[in-house]
Amino acid sequence: MNVVEAVKPYLKSAVAFATPGFIALGVAVQDSSPGGPHVTSAEWVGILVACFVTGAAVWAVPNLPRKEPPE
Questions:
Q1: How far is CA 59 from the centre of its chain?
Q2: What CA–CA distance (Å, rounded) separates 40 from 32?
Q3: Do 33 and 27 meet the contact criterion of CB atoms below 8 Å apart?
Q4: How many beta carbons lie within 10 A of that of residue 55, not counting itself?
Q5: Which is it for the CA torsion 56, 61, 62, 64, positive or negative?
Q6: Distance between CA 12 and CA 25 in Å, rounded?
Q7: Distance CA 21, CA 61 (A)
Q8: 46 pLDDT higher than 90
Q9: Can you tell me the mean pLDDT for 47-63?
Q10: What whole-number distance in Å separates Cα of residue 31 and Cα of residue 2?
Q11: What are phi and psi of 7, to 5 degrees?
């Protein structure tokens, strides 16, 4: 089994884990954020919580089985 096939079942969850983190990190480094261009401890906690909650929620929902096209 190659790496792609091994990761494929978990890819949806990995993307769901990373996406809110990148978005929250992008917001945290704005000049208008509480820490300015620096990320504060509270912002790091918020980023981690967003990542884990979203990743876990997506991981918990099973994928639907593929529908075979009608012949």
A1: 10
A2: 13
A3: yes
A4: 21
A5: negative
A6: 20
A7: 20
A8: yes
A9: 89
A10: 44
A11: -90, -20
Residue 1 banded pLDDT, cuts 50, 70, 90: low
pLDDT digits (tens, 9 = 90+) for 3-35: 888 888 788 888 888 999 999 999 888 888 888
**Cβ atoms of residues 47 and 25 within 8 Å:** yes
Residue labelled with tokens 């983190």:
21
Q: Which two tokens stand for residue 31?
A: 């000049």
Q: What type of residue is 14?
A: A
Nearest to 54 by CA among 18, 28, 22: 18
Q: Are 25 and 32 in contact (CB under 8 A)?
A: no
Q: How far is CA 50 from the centre of its chain?
A: 8
User: Could you tell me the pTM of the whole model?
Assistant: 0.73
